[in-house]
Amino acid sequence: MNMNLSVQEGVAHLILNNPPLNILSNKVKSDIKEAFYSLANDETVRVVLFETVGDHFCCGADLSEFPNRINNNGAKEAWINGHEMLQSILDLPQPSIVCVKGNALGGGAELASAFDIRLFAHDVIFGYPEVSRAVFPGNGGMERFIQLLGIANATYLFLTGERITASEARRIGMANKVVDRKQLESEGMYIARLLASYSNPAIQTIKRTINNYQHGNQFFQKGMSDFAMLHDTEDIKESVNAFFEKRKPVYRHN
After folding, report:
1. Could you check whether the bond before residue 20 is cis, i.e. omega within 30 degrees of 0?
2. How far does CA 109 lie from the centroid of its chain?
3. Per the CB 3.0–4.6 Å rule, which of 60, 89, 190, 205 could disulfide with 107?
4. Cα(111)–Cα(95) distance, rounded to whole angstroms?
5. Is the pTM higher than 0.70?
């Protein structure tokens, strides 16, 4: 297992440990997927903070697996593994935060894009260089990028393979925030703890409603039913009572 996990006060801190470049072999992709499957079913976890060890976030695919893709029809396996990895993050009911540093290239860029909140260090180099190796992003990151940032940005970056800085990633919307590297983990943990302090039903419903809107799944009706459901929780009653009593709410997360 290439993952280190700790859970404290509702925050799951998940770390990919595959130095020096944290490349995504099929085994690593499977480990990431299984970790997120497990977290999705853990009722003690309200937020997931993800990062990697070393100087670089993730430099993409394990090139040693490419001969198998070419000679033994391994491309389909890589495609399925990659999409299942990304989907495990996208389907996570809890909000997810990623801390990105150094190089986030190819599969690493795809991986970063799957998270709800994306924090970049100033030194990040981000891009999709797959075209230079005669392939294209195969983990689901192309679809995710288009969903987040549109056709125009996708067309330019995927066709040229150009690598962009953290400030450019912030400008186009891939990075939600850019901070000094030494502040990256603390900023991620601050946001994670902030979200964990909010009502868990509210946080998860907001995320689900946004996802329903993105996927066009009858947003109005689904959003309306979720909105009504939230107004039947103990947490919203506590929130209203706390407001009128001029105190901080104490949520029971139900």
Report:
1. yes
2. 11
3. 60
4. 15
5. yes
> What CA–CA distance (Å, rounded) separates 204 from 213?
14
Cα 231 to chain centroid, rounded: 28
What is the number of residues in the chain? 254
Q: Tell me which residue of 59, 39, 38, 60 sits closest to 48, measured CA to CA.
A: 39
DSSP-assigned letter for residue 180 = -
pLDDT tens for the chain, residues 1 to 254: 789 999 999 999 999 999 999 999 999 999 999 999 999 999 999 999 999 999 999 999 998 888 887 777 778 888 889 999 999 999 999 999 999 999 999 999 999 999 999 999 999 999 999 998 888 898 999 999 999 999 999 999 999 999 999 999 999 999 999 999 999 999 999 999 999 999 999 999 999 988 887 765 454 556 667 666 767 788 878 888 888 999 999 998 87
DSSP 3-state of 45: coil
Q: Give the span between the Cα atoms of 161 and 14, in whole angstroms.
A: 29
Rounded CA gap, 180 and 211, in Å?
30
Residues 178 and 63: their CA atoms lie apart, in Å, by: 30
Count of C-beta atoms within a 10 Å radius of residue 253: 18
In which residue are the tokens 């670089």 written? 56
Minimal CA–CA distance to 192: which of 51, 16, 86, 85?
51
